[in-house]
Amino acid sequence: MKLLKRAPEITPETPDEALVRRAQAGESAAFRALFERHVVAVRRFLRDLLRNTDAADDATQESFARAHAQLVKLTDYDRFKPWMLGIARNVAYESRRVRQHDVLEEDDDATPAAVIPSPDPEAMLLDAELEKHFTEALGHLSENRRAALLMRLDHGLAYEEIAAAFGWSIPTVKNEIHRARLKLRVHLLPHVTGERP
C-alpha cells in the first residue's frame, strides 16, 4: 500500500520559492500565504505611486488577481516580490491612464517610508514639511523612475530584481535610479539648506 505524502505545513519561514511552486500546483493556501506576506508592501508601493489610498487599495486587489491568474508564467520562483511589484507597477500605470481626467489628490495618510516622525513637536513640524516637499519632488519624476526608486528605497530590492521587474538591463536600472536621486536632490536641496543647488 502506497502512502500519500503530505505537503509540509506553511509557516512564516516557508520561502517564497516553495510557496510559488505549491501555488502553481494549485494549493490555494500557498497563494494566500504569498498574498499575506506581500500585501502591505504592494499596497504601500501603489500608494506611493498613485498618491491616493482608495486607488491604491483597488490597484492592490487588481494586482493580486492578475498575479494569481499569471502565476504559471513565473519561472524564477525565488523572484516573486520583484515580479509582483512589476505587476503592481503596470496596474498603477493603467489606473493613472484611466483616471487621467481626474485630479489625484494627495492623501494625508500617504507617508513615504523615508520620512520618520520625531517625538519633538518642532522636529515633527520640520519632518512634515520635508515629507510634503519629498512627495512633491517624487511627483516630478517620471513614473518609471519613481517606481524604480521606490523599489530600491522602500522595498530594498537589488538592482537585478528591479531589472527583472522592468525588463531593463542592470546599467539602465542604475542610471534611472541615479537620475531620480539627482532630480530629487535638485527639488529638495533648497528646502533642506535654503540654498539653490
TrEMBL record:
Which keywords annotate this record? DNA-binding, Sigma factor, Transcription, Transcription regulation
Question: Which residues are in the HTH luxR-type domain?
Answer: 156-183
Gene Ontology MF terms: DNA binding; sigma factor activity
Q: Which residues form a coiled coil?
A: none
What stretches pass through the bilayer? none
This protein's source sits in the domain of life called Bacteria
Q: Does the keyword ATP-binding apply?
A: no
Pfam families for this protein: Sigma70_r2, Sigma70_r4_2
Keyword Membrane, does the record have it? Answer: no
A single GO BP term for this record reads: DNA-templated transcription initiation
The entry assigns this protein to a family as follows: Belongs to the sigma-70 factor family. ECF subfamily.
What is the protein name for this chain? RNA polymerase sigma factor
